[in-house]
Design goal:
four-stranded mixed β-sheet; 43% helix
Length: 256
């Protein structure tokens, strides 16, 4: 990648984002060493992730009647390993995830925001005549692929296969996706990282991805700035317990 810029404040972050065109999407990571690969294709998950997903989708469809894509989106946001990677249309949401680590595992690590020129990437797929470009233009192909994936069949649909990761917009049928302005990068036939896929395809990652490193020392101050904008854990995850507690207080009074 290009030489990475390192920032130490929210204002510096905004300054780095100025003057960009096209359609950009963002991903924040609390550990700057992270590579772009879905949880379902990482280490210990790869052997059982698909089986868990098949079971989850079956149960969700029975219980709620959701389509396959919505089921996978819900699984992704409730920490079940999938073949999708979260992105956001919001640079503030991505910055939050670059600074926030609920388990405290990466507090001593710099964070990173990936700035992904979505429109340029999709133009590259089209120019290279990638099959994934057809799927992007026709959602019918995407749902055919998802159905075959869930049915444990071959996911090569003739000339309609997902041969490169593609962005799919969230169905936004539940609160977390809406609050996080989410979308997903979906892996098809490949089981390796996005960086390795591009190397194999002789595509230069610097043509459409920039990164900004977030200083580990600045994470608490940046989170405080984001909280002033209502970008925080409670809003992005819609803290249901807090809402329930508030309703109980209003109905029955504060009994503390």
């Amino acid at each position: 990648m290009n030489e990475e810029k390192k920032i130490f404040s929210y204002d510096e972050y905004i300054e780095e984002l100025k003057g960009r065109g096209d359609i950009f999407v963002f991903r924040g990571q609390a550990n700057s060493d992270f590579i772009l690969i879905p949880s379902g294709l990482r280490g210990e998950h790869i052997k059982e992730a698909d089986g868990q997903m098949f079971r989850f989708v079956d149960e969700m469809k029975k219980s709620f009647g959701f389509d396959e894509l919505t089921c996978i989106e819900i699984a992704q946001h409730f920490a079940l390993p999938t073949r999708m990677l979260d992105f956001s249309y919001s640079y503030d949401v991505a910055l939050f995830f670059a600074c926030h680590d609920a388990k405290g595992k990466y507090n001593d690590c710099d964070g990173k925001v990936f700035i992904f020129n979505k429109s340029k990437y999709e133009r590259i797929l089209k120019d290279l005549n990638k099959l994934s470009s057809q799927v992007i233009r026709n959602n019918k192909f995407l749902y055919e692929w998802l159905q075959k994936y869930i049915d444990k069949e071959s996911t090569f649909l003739g000339d309609k296969g997902i041969d490169m990761p593609i962005f799919i917009d969230a169905t936004q049928q539940f609160d977390r996706l809406y609050m996080q302005k989410g979308l997903f990068l979906l892996w098809g036939k490949d089981d390796c990282s996005f960086e390795k896929i591009l190397i194999n395809e002789n595509i230069n990652i610097n043509d459409f991805i920039d990164t900004i490193v977030i200083s580990k020392e600045s994470k608490p101050l940046i989170l405080a700035e984001l909280a002033k904008k209502n970008i925080c854990e409670d809003t992005l995850y819609m803290n249901i317990n807090k809402i329930k507690d508030l309703v109980n207080i209003i109905k029955y009074g504060d009994k503390k």
